[in-house]
């Protein structure tokens, strides 16, 4: 933290009563006393923060000085947008300032002083009969509130300045401070009458009056600036008393309870100010991030304290910061700075680091928090009322909905099981394969591996006091990675992943000592079987062979126990090995347990791995390269040894397949070095340097398809989840997908349109419908549509795409390429930390429209790649976002499209999308609308239309012949006969016509 007191920020040695930092953190305003009038000054913030800029004479310090007020200025506040500045003065006036073009001048002691910026008073607001002491802009700049010594509060209509919206009367003393609830439902005011009042913005009536903490207070402060926490849960008042000592009282929104306060100041608290952002950082002794708010408190004792809601004590306390009372505080929204001003005419700046304060929550996450807490969109708040409790429920069916908060739709079963289908080396359970060295691995906290003897697992007494409320594991759990090592969960570790860490570090084994023990214990055969994929350079003979770092990607990393944290560091450092390592490479210990044949259908489950890594080894391979590498997935490992055999015409590559709990299955040779390979539960695909591709049976090694020439080497090869399709991408951009069962080509095209400008291809996947999914190094992803004969954009750096992915993607999504290929690709290529269905505070913000545009594009992509499960999800998400954004026109268009018309059903209209009935989608959307009380009339209207539609269609089905002809003429005649039959009355026919007419009107 840095403390700065720029002496050039002054009002000619007159008091400064107010300070406020602009939203862009480039300037700040001060208000106070001038020579012969009230003074408002706008200062450049850069020279305050930078010594170099302060010493640079070309950098202006004062940007503009305004002496228009006739008396002392008590408060200055920037609008939320930053376009306007409001000032309140002892002359009973409020002035609204806006910047105009060009410089201006002001009379000073040395003549006319140049202003680098020109700010003009565009509105003068008259309404108070006494000094104006405090100001506050509402969220979204809908209103401006001011309070005065005339005991009143005035609400000004910002859109219609200088119109007065309401005058709030109720205080019996001077009103010295006001603050808006960040979600716009309440306005709080504090007065010399020893009370804090809460006013409802729906009707501007007083909702609550809090007096208990202020009964002992005297009117000893010039101002009482209270503040509301950015999450809306707490209101902190200024001058309060507790046991005879001054405090800053905490008033909880839930029940307006007053049982907590900030203590420590020796004299009355004059002002409090929350940082406008909700902050987050890693909780000490825990892996769980914590969210909190930050508050500054100023007092008449000339001291300043900074508090965090996550700490029991203040973060910092500065005594005797000024020579007089602290009168105002202001945080820099985009920077970790705090400005304070005093009656002695000086300003102080506290500059914090992000490590000290924390990282601000993004606007999307902040808005999502509002949605979770208050269950409503802030777009409804601008009219003053949006609470479900304030609305009249017109249908008894909807009464139950007010008990539940509206939540965005999610993909089903995204967290119940692990759907990371691209992971290599899963945990193999229910096996009896023993470990060759009796060691386990702890890879928490991104530290190098710590090895502990499994037979010496002692109880850690440090766990006892911290985790008593958490149910511990009843017995020791043992899981096993693909390379045969055991992972043992001690009996004393609870299942809850968010258990706080023990503070007793002495009971932990030293990582460096344990690593040394590990290196001494491992034999050569163990070293050879550590990595899931290992490349070994062998051009200079086996004696000089070095085992490189295992470049393990997310795809290739073994799936670990859910309580373990994945390490980003390699498992081991490079080690020199000898010839003996490869004599039985890789090493397996046989088990006497009989093993039954594998059922390929068991690997179709989305919760299981269905293939090995799609990319090649991280080593260059040439015709003369001698190297070894392997891949492990499912219960199998395939090992490739290039340059294994010397012949008269060149080197041969040897391929060996193993089953982990059995041993070697088969062995074969290939005449060209293998640069990439992949395998699923049925087949092995071998891709050579000469561009040839071979397909073998995984269990027997038999050839399934003849060798295919692809001109250049393959860089990516993949199977579909069920193993029916196989595809490759070559260096020159050729894309091929084959059907293994029929030995026929399904797709043959080129990637030249998307190659070369996005970096290397990082991942390649194939859906069950032969749709290729390609992900590049720069985060872009594409898919090919044979119908459109074009590449489809799945992910780019487009702002709309990025915003949509960050705010609309399911939270904690585990990839599942079988059921959710589109979302899985976007989750892989989009580096978002928290995906939330955020609600935008600004109704006119571009973000609201961007989300809707993104979701509509997602629906079309789901249709193009034939993904019905995702289609249903994105239709529900579209309805949710339209409902939250208040877009009735688009909601009606969506509902009309899904409802259809009963008079032409089956003739012209498409009644299904990807074999999903439109009416099924309509029912899910109506269910969404039912939860939004705001749309109760729309729900009832379309629910009635849908019920009438079903009645009319049911009668059509009863009268129509059982066996329908396929020709359109026959169907048309049947509908004519239906219309002519007396079973459908004239009233019902008119109802059908009215239904169509009603839909046309909507």
From TrEMBL:
Subcellular location: Nucleus
InterPro entries: Beta-prop_CAF1B_HIR1 (IPR055410), HIR1-like (IPR031120), HIRA-like_C (IPR011494), HIRA_B_motif (IPR019015), WD40/YVTN_repeat-like_dom_sf (IPR015943), WD40_repeat_CS (IPR019775), WD40_repeat_dom_sf (IPR036322), WD40_rpt (IPR001680)
UniProt GO molecular function: nucleosome binding
Domain Protein HIRA-like C-terminal intervals: 701-898
GO cellular-component term (any): chromatin
Domain CAF1B/HIR1 beta-propeller: 1-357
Keyword line: Chromatin regulator, Nucleus, Repeat, Repressor, Transcription, Transcription regulation, WD repeat
GO biological process annotation, one example: DNA-templated transcription
WD repeats: 66-98, 125-166, 168-209
Entry's family note: Belongs to the WD repeat HIR1 family.
Entry function: Required for replication-independent chromatin assembly and for the periodic repression of histone gene transcription during the cell cycle.
PANTHER family: MEMBER OF THE HIR1 FAMILY OF WD-REPEAT PROTEINS (PTHR13831), PROTEIN HIRA (PTHR13831:SF0)
The protein's name: Protein HIRA
Organism of this sequence: Glossina palpalis gambiensis
